Sequence to fold (514 residues):
Amino acid sequence: MLRRRFLQFLSGGLFSGLTGLFFRKPLFAMQDYGSQGKLVLILENGEKKQLFTFDKSGEYFISVKNFSDLTGLGIFTNIEKRKTVLYVQDTKIKFTADNPFVIINNDQIIQVVLEPFWKEGEIWIAVEELARLLSGYSALKVSYNRATGEVILGNKDINVTRVDVFTKQNGVMVQLSATKKFAEKDLSTKKVNNWFYLEIIGGKLDPKVINRSVSNELITEIQAVQLEQAASVAFKLKNDIIDIHLSSGDGSNDIILNLVTDQQLEKDMKAREDLHEQKKKWLIDTIVIDPGHGGKDPGAVGVGKIKEKDIVLPVALKLGTALKNALPDVNIVYTRDTDVFIPLWQRTKIANQANGKLFVSLHCNSNRSSKFNGFETYFLSSEKDERAKDVVMKENQSIEFEESEDKKRYEGINFVLATLAQNAFIKQSQYLASTVQKKMALKLKPLGMNDRGVKQGPFWVMVGATMPNVLIEMGFISNKFESKLLMQKSTQQKLADSICDGIVKYKTDFESSI
Ligand SMILES: [Zn+2]
Fold:
């Protein structure tokens, strides 16, 4: 079935027409286009084709355009914006050059570890990432064998490829794209509490592709289960539904469900705002700055009795000013802007209540040995990184200054579970940590400070923040050279400016992917 669709694309369908518009000079005339002979693409019918590859940091990257040429998949490239959309049946996968966020069907943001880049007027993506994206989010099964260099294209054994939810004038429409026609007798619906179920006898689907949360005024979540004889798709409802129309679409294989609620008028209004709102809620419009310690908690005490709390506060205020200058529309919230004590749990509460979109905690490091030096950025993880143990212990010690009532809040919290709850943000936090650390290195290494890199650790102050968050150790106040630097206003300004640069880079990359 899939092959036939590929051939349709090849034989002058809509998408091959679009790619034609963006054909540039022929491949053989290109300079530096990469080399052939390293990766072999094996199509479903066994046909073998050579992929152009480009080696970058030990990984093979391939051109999305070359991949689409060889597979017949549809493609559209916006050269100006350096974006490419790959069409796989009903799935649209959008790549942006030098940006780790990949968009699936305009409603899911997936982060890749190896960023796609722009070369010869095209997007190049690590073959490993492309295989993962296609297998995870489309009807295709793509396996990459690193040892043999084979990229094997297959078809999942499925006949329900996608589920989409649309807001219509007369209610909410659910569209299930199918590759075969289902008879109405094979379709049944039921409602249990706030879940609505559709059972498709003979239906085969990939729950990984279907399951997701959706942004719609009626449906908030889709959960699919593959049973032996049937597929079941469940929809979590926000409001009660008063009527359901089920049809196996005329002319197409699609299964259409029209769900009617009694909040019609309200809904019409919302529908218009929906797309706008959906995008708006992703925007990074509030940034929370958390200067560590304060008041009775001095934090680390370093050379010449300088206190961590007295370094992080001026840097935090300078960071806030730098961010306000760079991003005038963004709201800046401080967990403290004076020398006061704030319990750790309250810091994330302040961030959540302000509807923060990023949380940045500022600290200084110390060690019994005065030879340790350098700056490092942490993201939350339950993993036990031996190198981070010391820092984690020290920063979590702030709890000792809290009232016994406050301390009780940390009892019985399982760190692994608490971190899991944050999973959605961990990859984003990791990326924020890397942009901040890189920008800090640019300004601080010339001063003679040491780049200790990005690390992970279980910090209490980060648990519970429902947003990407990082903790920055800006240098060792136990080191004579660094404590002197950290006390200087000019270094504090450099710290603030570089952290600001890292946040701006993250915000730009994240928002341009939307
Ligand atoms: Zn600290």
